[in-house]
Each structure stands twice: as structure tokens, then as C-alpha cells.
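ugh ok fine here u go
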Amino acid sequence: MQGLDENTRDLIQRRVLKRVKDIPSMPQFVIETLRKLDDPKSSATDVGERLARDEGLVLRVLRLANSAYYGLSRRITGVSEAISYMGFKTVKSIVLAASVYKFMDSSFTGYALDRGELWKHSQAVAATSRYLSAKLKMGDPEEAYIGGLMHDFGKIVLNDYVRFGYSIILRLVEEDRLSFSDAERQVLGFDHAQVGGLVMDQWNLPDSYSYMTAYHHSPEELPEDGQECRKVLDVVHVSNLMCLMLGIGIGADGIQYNISTESLERLGIENQTENIMAEFVDVISAMEDDFKDN
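structure:
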């Protein structure tokens, strides 16, 4: 089956690239906070001073520090104390989550996602990725959280173009048995994973974020120079597909993707998928109150 004509496809590709460049950058204080969190010379006080510029972030850090997830025996009231307890990596996850919320908490009709559904799905994948990484000791759990959080960011950019070409994409999925991502690429020249990777590059975020985003549906295509994030990518890939199977944030693309048997084997869970999914239900249920207002 043919996709759009070549001229239309080229025009869409140019417009998608322009949309990527036009995505607003993060606020300067967020960038400065992330730099402080990556600086081994920084103290909790240094980071707390940066966070203090945004009351919402301060409240989020304190709320999470006092959540059931951390199970503290006493209440933490100061942001520097919370940062010291949770660690810089966890705080970095919170800062990024708070910063991308405004982009994701909308409706995306091209993907048939009602308002908040993309955010809900991203948070679920982030939470389960963190859990699976820690359970299997595969990669850094906080890196896995960020990978899960950002994996579908490209849908924000590609939404209007998927809506335009949806009937053709759907026929490719149904008649030619393509995955939704393959159909996106054939019709539009990009899939949402590739576009998300471009946004991570545009924001000058670490290369690992670009790799986890760009290859979350195609982990076997991870290039040689990205192999350092192989374990975390496998975790995000599996967590994403399992969350879709559980019906969390399913949109127009549904579960029209293939789970990588190689990823399952590398993680050592090829015979444990049902048990893992049951654990994911518990993880998402237990953490729902902690992340629903991120």
C-alpha cells in the first residue's frame, strides 16, 4: 500500500523538523538546577536555593519525600533535607517531570488521547521502569524513570500530522500488518520515537535520553555508540509495552507494536511476563497518589 505522495511527505518532514526547533526550551532556572544536580561539587543547599525559585517544585519535592513510597518515620519540612534524603538523581527526576508536565497534560486527538492520558501513560511507564530496573538490577532506576517519562514526547510534535494521515496509517497497520511506528515512518517520514529523540537533542539533554526515546519501540536498532544505555532501554521498552497491554494510556496506536523477545531475554524475564505485569499493577496503584499531580 502506498503512503502519501512524495511531495506531501517531504513537506510534512520539513514542517516536523521546524516544529521540533520551535519547541520552547526549559526555563533557565530549571536548566541551572539540572546543572547543579549533575555537578559533584554541589550541595543540597545549592540545589535547594535553585529549587526555591519555583514554589511548585519545592512542594512536589516535599510531597514525595513524605510519601508512603519512602516510608519515613518522621516528617520532612525542609527542601534541603528532602534533597539530602532522596538524593540528587531522584530530585532530577522530579524536576524533569515538573518541567515537561505542561507539554503532556493536553489532549492529542491525532493519537485519540484525551486530556491527561499521555501524562498518565508516561508516568506509569516511568514508575514501572524505575521499579523493573531496581528489581532486576538493570541500569540506574532513576535513568529508567526519566526514559519512561520522556519516551512518548514525540507524540506532542507529531500529533497533527498523524491526524492528517491517520486513515492511511491505519490501513497499513491492518492490511500490511505493520507496527504503528513503521506505518508512521512510511506515511510521514518519521515516527514519534524518532521525533522525541530529536527534541531531546534540541534541549541538549544527555545522549542517553535521546537513545531511550528514539529507540523505545526498536531496541534492536540501538547504535553501537549508545550501548551504554542498553539495559535501561530494554527496561523502558518492556515497561511501555506492558503498560499498553494493561490499558494505561492506550490511544489510536493501541498495542500495535511488537515486544522485543531479545529485550525480554536480556532482562531474563522471558518466562515471567504475567508475573511482572501483575507486579506493575501493584506498583502503579501504590504510587498513583504520589505522581498523579506531578
